[in-house]
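FAQ: What does the model actually see?

It sees only this:
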Amino acid sequence: MIDPTSSLKVGPLTTRNRVILAPMSGVSDLPFRQLAYEYGAGMVVTEMVASRELVGRSAESQVRLQGEGISPHVVQLAGRQASWMSEAAKISEASGADMIDINMGCPAKKVTGGYSGSALMRDLDLALELIEATIEAVNIPVSVKMRLGWDENSMNAAELARRAEQAGVQMVTVHGRTRSQFYDGHADWTAIANVRAAVTIPFIANGDVETVDDVDQILKLTGADAVMVGRQCQGRPWHCGFLAGDNNSPKTSTDIYRFVRRHYLMMIDHYGEKIGIRQSRKHLNWYLERYAQNLDPKLRTEILSSLDVNFVVNKLEKAIDNNDENKIGEVA
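And it is asked to produce this:
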């Protein structure tokens, strides 16, 4: 049985443990990743960075590329043209990336509509062209994150994983749903196991991992070397570390408030006040959903709509301190 608290070798890199924070567009920005890493995640991955925009030096792509204080720094790239992927990979490496992850799993229509993300699973020859171009462009490891397939009639993740390994990819992650499922139903861990059998490189299982027991079960059932956790970390960036046995997660309402306040102020510092306030609202909403379930709706609206940083900080303390202490601590 694999010990999730042990390290994992990926080429020349070594993770701290085997519970990895998933790349989540609009969620796993630098402050979120810094907190997840500080609180014990084995490895964290950037938001998806569009290769064409990075080559064009767009401001958003530059922000998403950042990885200060995180090691290894893993950048996830998405694209549909080999030349863009190649140049974006070079830019990422020059900016300090320790590994490139290629997105072949995003189900969003704005991504698949541009023949990127999980749409690449409909054209494995193109997918391999992008993989090969990325590998040839850099001297750091390249990994691929994918879904089981486009839909239930084209479950081709095992073939893509096998061909990716042959091309030189050093890690594969599989989310246990097809693109057509988006996030509906439960991830198919048995189907992930079928992909595991196709490769010998480090293999990561992703999908509906929330508890310590889930970690043990998915590792046992799939034969994966590690797990990746995504949406279950929304409203608790420390959750990967908790699942990996780290004991630093907040345990009281005061702990939660201090963590949320810190995250909020990190967002303001990172983006600037105007953008930071806007970007932080989804995170505040997740925190309030988890730790202030009985909050007065009027106060909730005031917190999530206010443009006054000090007002938000003060009201958050009131909102979270009034929560039931018995519901605060992490539960395995």
